[in-house]
Amino acid sequence: MSDSIQAGIVIIGAGQAGVQTAESLRAGGYAGSITLLGDEPHGPYHRPPLSKAWLAGEMDGAQLVMRAPEMLARKQIELRTEVKVASIDRAAQQVLLADGSALPYSGLVLATGSTPRSLPLPGGNAAGVHALRSREDADAIAQRLALCLQQQRPVVVIGGGFIGLEVAATARKKGQDVTVLEAAPRLLGRVLAPALSDWYAELHRSHGVKLVFDARIEALETDSDHAVSGVRLVDGSLLPAGLVVVGIGVHANDGLAQAAGLECERGIVVDACGRSSDPAIVAAGDCTARRLADGSLIRLESVQNATEQGKSAAAALLGQERPFTATPWFWSDQYDKKLQMAGLSGGAEAWAIRGNMGGDMAGASFSIYHFRAGKLIAVDSVNAAKDHLQARKLLDAGLSPSPEQAADLGFDLGSLLK
Ligand SMILES: Cc1cc2nc3c(=O)[nH]c(=O)nc-3n(C[C@H](O)[C@H](O)[C@H](O)COP(=O)(O)OP(=O)(O)OC[C@H]3O[C@@H](n4cnc5c(N)ncnc54)[C@H](O)[C@@H]3O)c2cc1C
């Protein structure tokens, strides 16, 4: 592939992964043309603040910008916004744009992100029902939040995952009446240990959020203007609502790849270097499902994943091997608590808690160490940044304290790294 890349690289998706791939190509010495295509009206911007500081109105537009178009231009990366790719012609090595024009490529990067799942229920499309992915979504939610506050109408969040809980925390901070409906028996059940799920439930309750577990929703009620007015549960109860935020997960944007015949399974299947089933095409970020050495697939939706896969994908286009093998990490901000997660805790058999988790919630600072077969596999830290950074180093190095050492504040975990 490296012989033919002089003809130009096209990147579909001007988000975290697309920008990283473009910049890594330049940093890696690629001198051909790079065209970064994005279907949004904005240049690249940060998504994480959309449910946090941006939604709270604590950030200005300049802070949301990931890369100014001028900065990309200085690196000779051609950014084209409001351009939607309609299909990929692999045989002719060109992408077809929605306006009917074609753009040839020698190397193609798919960095198309993901789309929030919609609520397949009556009333799911009513005005005042929002998912949160884009800047427009966040602005619409902020506008509706202000209206609800003015009219003293409650907010219902469907889904107790990270985005739903961050929106709930932001809305509560503004004084909104907030209820979170979660279909499972606990919050963040797929990613947190039960003890941490319970701790987060307590955190939200202590801030006045109402939580409903095992929630079964029948329909969203609407008023005569087809705007949402409430959420009806199957047990017959009705929760009035002027705003419903739906945070029930995402699906990978792999439609273009599927239509082009690339291998897809819950996302565009890539190897650790971001290579797809077509040697001229790499993929990075939320749109991918990465094949691990044991043959299983992993889907991650995080800034780190988009960044690391972007670097790997760029290297692959340059004919180099740069597998993404670093420990996965993620963060979430709710109220004044920063959760930082390192590693993947699925399959943990034992846990150790380090620090102050019980009692005083305001002063909480702790980490939960997850073990499988006696080996450290993940660490979730709350307001404990030092633990998190150390955990990433331990996990990257394959080092493991015993559960007793992890729980003992008198034991210096850093000594394991020396
Ligand atoms: C509200 C919110 C909060 C988050 N908080 C955190 C957090 O705290 N920590 C964390 O690690 N992660 C967080 N994430 C996740 C993180 O933002 C994503 O994992 C990351 O943005 C993925 O980057 P990406 O480049 O794969 O996708 P995106 O950033 O979504 O970029 C993909 C781009 O491709 C465009 N596109 C798609 N199809 C086409 C097409 N056919 N033609 C042209 N363009 C197309 C899309 O419109 C989009 O602009 C959050 C996400 C959201 C929405």
UniProtKB/TrEMBL annotation:
UniProt cross-references to InterPro entries, sorted A to Z: FAD-oxidoreductase/Apoptosis, FAD/NAD-bd_sf, FAD/NAD-binding_dom, FAD/NAD-linked_Rdtase_dimer_sf, Reductase_C
GO CC list: cytoplasm
Domain Reductase C-terminal positions: 329-416
Essential cofactor(s): FAD
Pfam families recorded: Pyr_redox_2, Reductase_C
Statement: the UniProt record of this protein carries the keyword Oxidoreductase: yes
Keywords: FAD, Flavoprotein, Oxidoreductase
A GO term, aspect molecular function: oxidoreductase activity, acting on NAD(P)H
Start and end residues of each FAD/NAD(P)-binding domain: 9-310
Protein name according to UniProt: Pyridine nucleotide-disulfide oxidoreductase
The species this protein was found in: Malikia spinosa
